[in-house]
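Practice problem 4.
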């Protein structure tokens, strides 16, 4: 059976549309846009590397432009989002708590994130830790420094950070807020008041079914093997989900010119599908992406859909790095055209572009140079930089840009 055929460029655009990267935001962003963006992506992966902006802030910047990172902190402390293990550690919309609750109730399946042996070995300290939080309020791991003492003897316990992480994975504690990006833990019943496992928690099977359905929406266009990675599901029954979504009309099959296999487009993208069939759609967004942006976090998908072979090299010895410590993919009008290794010098209010590599075959045109220049400038301004310093950039760009510029 033959299906409608769309171009590879159109397939990319449908995916970017699902990820809110179809058109730049033309108005000033608001605090509500942060929660809306997380709801549209389903998940916002957390990473603490801060050589430039930390990843969750950067993912939001790519979609919102010059917004206040404090809005993310506020959304967490207000309970509009919560933290848990999904793709990896993620911020997740509050209304999706039920999707992950089954993991908390059966943490033994969480691998290295939970140790039953540790839980049993330290059950007395863990019980005392919960009692302390119940009586005295939220805590940070830093509150248990061995250098601090208290007349109550509390500091003499020296509980390990692993106690907090174990209780977090088991759903006994949740992150009520972050202070300087450090987790603050409180009892789950205080963060999610009114929650009732008996009436609200989904079974693992029901939750994973819903996660796969949502993954189809967040991807916009997908192959069957792409679905499970979004929430990092194992042994997921993607065939059943696809059959059900086809029957309900929530997805429709297409072929992608130049790519092998069966592809499906989600209902949310149907308004663009007709234009896609006529190759009349294209993303107009040019921006820098986080290494943990949903567009690139599945490296195999990024290679197949965007022909972008991407690895993060912060864990690679410096001498063996090809592109840099924390390279940011460059998204330009529907294509991933290169990567930037940047560093924010906060005291000097300077963004340094340590290196910029364009993909093989990418030519420097006047518009492309202007687009990249604008993306770097917006990125620098958002972080409070007053100038940009270029260290290692293709000659075709330095001819146009010189060695840097004022923001």
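Answer key:
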């Amino acid at each position: 059976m033959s299906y409608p055929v769309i171009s590879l460029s159109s397939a990319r655009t449908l995916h970017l549309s699902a990820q809110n990267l179809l058109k730049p935001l033309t108005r000033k962003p608001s605090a509500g846009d942060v929660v809306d963006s997380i709801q549209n992506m389903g998940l916002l992966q957390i990473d603490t590397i801060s050589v430039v902006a930390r990843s969750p802030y950067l993912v939001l910047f790519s979609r919102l432009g010059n917004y206040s990172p404090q809005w993310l902190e506020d959304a967490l402390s207000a309970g509009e989002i919560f933290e848990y293990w999904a793709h990896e550690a993620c911020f997740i919309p509050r209304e999706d708590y039920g999707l992950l609750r089954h993991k908390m109730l059966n943490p033994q399946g969480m691998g290295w994130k939970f140790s039953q042996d540790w839980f049993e070995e330290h059950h007395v300290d863990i019980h005392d830790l919960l009692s302390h939080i119940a009586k005295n309020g939220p805590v940070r791991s830093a509150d248990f420094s061995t250098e601090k003492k208290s007349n109550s003897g509390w500091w003499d316990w020296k509980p390990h950070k692993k106690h907090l992480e174990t209780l977090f994975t088991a759903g006994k504690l949740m992150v009520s807020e972050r202070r300087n990006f450090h987790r603050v833990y409180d009892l789950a019943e205080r963060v999610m008041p009114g929650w009732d496992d008996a009436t609200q928690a989904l079974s693992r099977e029901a939750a994973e079914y819903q996660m796969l359905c949502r993954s189809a929406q967040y991807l916009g266009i997908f192959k069957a093997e792409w679905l499970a990675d979004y929430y990092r599901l194992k042994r997921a029954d993607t065939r059943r989900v696809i059959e059900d979504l086809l029957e309900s009309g929530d997805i429709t099959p297409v072929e992608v010119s130049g790519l092998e296999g069966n592809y499906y487009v989600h209902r949310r993208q149907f308004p663009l599908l007709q234009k896609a069939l006529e190759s009349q759609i294209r993303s107009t967004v040019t921006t820098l992406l986080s290494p943990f942006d949903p567009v690139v976090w599945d490296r195999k998908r990024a290679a197949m859909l965007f022909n972008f072979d991407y690895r993060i090299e912060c864990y690679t010895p410096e001498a063996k790095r090809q592109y840099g410590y924390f390279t940011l993919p460059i998204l330009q009008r529907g294509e991933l055209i290169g990567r930037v290794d940047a560093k924010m010098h906060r005291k000097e209010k300077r963004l340094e572009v340590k290196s910029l590599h364009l993909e093989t075959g990418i030519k420097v045109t006047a518009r492309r140079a202007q687009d990249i220049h604008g993306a770097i400038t917006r990125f620098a301004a958002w972080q409070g930089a007053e100038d940009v310093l270029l260290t290692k950039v293709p000659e075709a760009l330095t001819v146009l840009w010189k060695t840097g510029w004022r923001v």
